[in-house]
């Protein structure tokens, strides 16, 4: 289980495989100067909406022993969702 650290007080546990795909999406969106809304589950069972943009720093920690294999189709779907009106919602996409 990996972790997306958004601020000092906000971090989100995300499966390493999904986090690896999110990393590619974030990298490509920010490379194009495109911010997006990200909805992610919280520890309490709710959901948090966070803005991912060039002015917000994020850190991703991976805890697995080896890098997950990336799925180009999943990355394409996540990129499309991130560009949509509702942003990208993380769920069990594997």
Characterize the structure shown.
This protein is α+β, with helices and mostly antiparallel strands and about 90 residues long. Helices cover about 30% and strands about 30% of the residues. It has helices spanning about 15-30, 70-85, and strands at about 1-5, 10-15, 35-40, 45-50, 60, 90. It has a three-stranded antiparallel sheet with strand order 2-1-5. Strands 4-3-6 form a three-stranded mixed sheet. The model has no long low-confidence stretch (mean pLDDT about 90).
Q: Outline the low-pLDDT stretches.
A: none
The fraction of residues assigned to DSSP E strands is 25-35%
Number of domains: 1
Shape: globular
Structural class: alpha+beta
Secondary-structure element order, as H and E? EEHEEEHE
**Largest sheet, strands/sense/barrel:** 3 strands, antiparallel
Radius of gyration: 12 Å
> What is the end-to-end distance?
14 Å
DSSP helix fraction: 25-40%
Q: Kindly state the mean pLDDT as a whole number?
A: 90
How is this fold's topology laid out?
Elements: E1 2-7, E2 10-14, H1 16-31, E3 36-41, E4 47-52, E5 59-61, H2 72-83, E6 88-89
Parallel strand pairs: 3-6
Antiparallel strand pairs: 1-2, 1-5, 3-4
Helix pairs in contact: 1-2
Task: Write a brief structural summary.
The chain is α+β, with helices and mostly antiparallel strands and 94 residues long.
